[in-house]
């Protein structure tokens, strides 16, 4: 499939952020006893399933991720608003905020080890809350600033749209627009799945230090964003 330069850049960023979201969400799920840090619907289902079991124990951590995630989204909106108001690079700031929060997620998790599902400590709760805030920032950034991208924090809607685009791809005999629209959903979904798969093996091998990969990815995005803005200023 052939894309113009701008489309290629958008697709690359979309795929990168999809991988990052899948990686962090899967690592949080494995490390924090089935907690989804970026998938609120999943937590609702798990809470219902746990409450229905005889002798269940109430999972306060799964409840706390709701306000934590919302705080992350609100934080993204406030930062973006203030940056745009003062002519600052909002995307750069949100990348850095998410990176700092993932560092805090990693450090809190390392301090909370060894984790015990039967005795959820305050540090474990802090770990889950910080992770949810980080993914709230991630999701908010996509909705506020990266509106050309497909959502990277949840894939249900993307899979639905992918099937629609696939059918259109067949019906329209694979024209360029249909190929482009199909790729917009296909590659982020694949990246999300690969991120989740890699996170599972990485956490088993490295524990919370496996979060160094998405942290490094965000650092690269910060550097790229700075470089792009510098080049744009030179051309202006």
Automatic annotation (TrEMBL):
Q: What is the lineage of its organism?
A: Bacteria, Pseudomonadati, Pseudomonadota, Betaproteobacteria, Burkholderiales
Key words of the record: Membrane, Transmembrane, Transmembrane helix
Q: Report whether Cytoplasm shows up as a keyword of the record.
A: no
Record's protein name = DUF1275 domain-containing protein
Residues annotated as transmembrane: 20-40, 60-80, 92-111, 123-146, 185-204, 210-228
Q: Which Pfam families match?
A: DUF1275
